[in-house]
Amino acid sequence: QVQLVESGGRLVQAGGSLRLSCALSGRTFGSFAMGWFRQAPGKEREFVAAISVSGGRIYYAGSVKGRFTISRDNAKNTVYLQMNSLKPEDTAVYYCAADRTSATRPVVASYEYDYWGQGTQVTVSS
Questions:
Q1: Of the residues 51, 56, 64, 67, which has the maximum number of CB atoms within 10 A of its CB?
Q2: Nearest residue to 71 (alpha-carbon basis) of 84, 86, 90, 52
Q3: Mean pLDDT of 36-56
């Protein structure tokens, strides 16, 4: 059984930084493409960033490009989301997701992901 556990979310002031982590257990991490999504109150879940199995291909949503960095450490079974220059509109529950079938490309569509974490709250105060 694959489990994803996010951590690192908290309250931060605008302009600050956070690093989210997501640890995968139950299967070989190196066989999954990984992604981050977020959902703000009253809004639909939206794509944030994705990384291929090798880490060689990455894709970002336009709203976070240049501020957020996704990375993975296959030896630690963990994917990260470094978030800099945070804005109040980044406030959301952040979810990581794992896709077992798309090895060579970053996965943008939420329906392609097979496993999801429980989410971690990020709140950015103005």
A1: 51
A2: 52
A3: 95
SS3 86: coil
Which residues on adjacent β-strands are paired with residue 34?
Answer: 51, 98
Pairing of strands 11-13, 33-39: unpaired
Give which of 97, 33, 40 is closest to 63, Cα–Cα.
40
Give 8-42 pLDDT, tens digit per residue. Answer: 999 999 999 999 999 999 888 888 999 999 999 99
Residues 80-96: pLDDT tens digits? 999 999 999 999 999 99
The residues, ordered by sequence, that sit 6+ positions from 18 with a Cβ below 8 Å of its Cβ are: 8, 9, 10, 12, 82, 83, 86, 122
